[in-house]
Amino acid sequence: MAKVYPQTLPSPSPSSSPSSSSLCSETESETFTIWMKSLIYHTNGCTVFDSNGDIVYRVDNYDRKCSREVFLMDLRGKVLFTIRKKKFSILGGWEGFRWIESERSKKASFGVKKLYRTASRKSNQSVCEINVGFERFSLVKMDGKLAFRIININGEVVAEAKRKVSWNGILLGDDVLSLNANSQIERSLIMALVTVYGLIRRQM
């Protein structure tokens, strides 16, 4: 299978001040390619490639779409997070449970709450609130079908996904994203949040 190589994005200058349009300064960033499809017969799910074009994360939802429970795995099928929709949440809440040594944590590692308001349908508006322990983040919808940013409480961008452009300038499909993430949030946690957003947008 041909490898998918993410487009390398320039890192922000350490001297530049943080803003909502650039990743947090003085942090290392890494680029991934996200394909909102499972490689198992191209069924529902998500496949994530690193900067070398190798698969690093995957979600296989098979013939079901918008399941109430999905599993974020590594390449070999080791479960990293169980992502579960809250049963009695009117606002469409999701929780993520980390797996440690083949056992699922009983306490949620993060929670995501969808915001219901007219303004959230527009671009550059928060559509989700994210709680990771005592830390708070927002997921902001950008221009494009699935483009988004994750920002911290200070308004700094810690992850940004937008429609991928190939090395020769060809704009790929709506379900292929280039994700640039800095080291402020652990990588598998970012992928778990990407999975939640894909479920909210009914893309997996």
Would you write up a description of this structure?
This protein is mainly β. Helices cover 7% and strands 40% of the residues. It is built from 1 helix and 13 strands, in the order βββββββββββββα. The protein has one helix spanning 187-200, and strands at 29-35, 44-49, 55-62, 69-74, 79-85, 94-100, 103-104, 110-114, 125-132, 135-141, 148-152, 157-163, 176-182. A 12-stranded antiparallel barrel has the order 1-2-3-4-5-6-8-9-10-11-12-13. The protein is globular, with a radius of gyration of 16 Å. The two termini are 22 Å apart. Mean pLDDT is 82; it is low at 7-26.
Write out key terms for the chains shown.
mainly beta, twelve-stranded antiparallel barrel, globular, 7% helix, 204 residues
The counted number of beta strands is 13
Provide the gyration radius in Å. Answer: 16 Å
Helicity, in percent?
under 10%
Spatial strand order of the main sheet: 1-2-3-4-5-6-8-9-10-11-12-13
Oligomeric grouping of the chains:
single chain
What value does the average pLDDT take? 82
Which percent band covers the strand fraction?
35-45%
Per DSSP, the total helix count is 1
Helix and strand content put the structural class at mainly beta
The parts where pLDDT drops under 50 for at least 5 residues are: 7-26
Distance between the termini: 22 Å
- From the spread of the alpha carbons, the general shape counts as globular
**Topology order in helix (H) and strand (E) letters:** EEEEEEEEEEEEEH
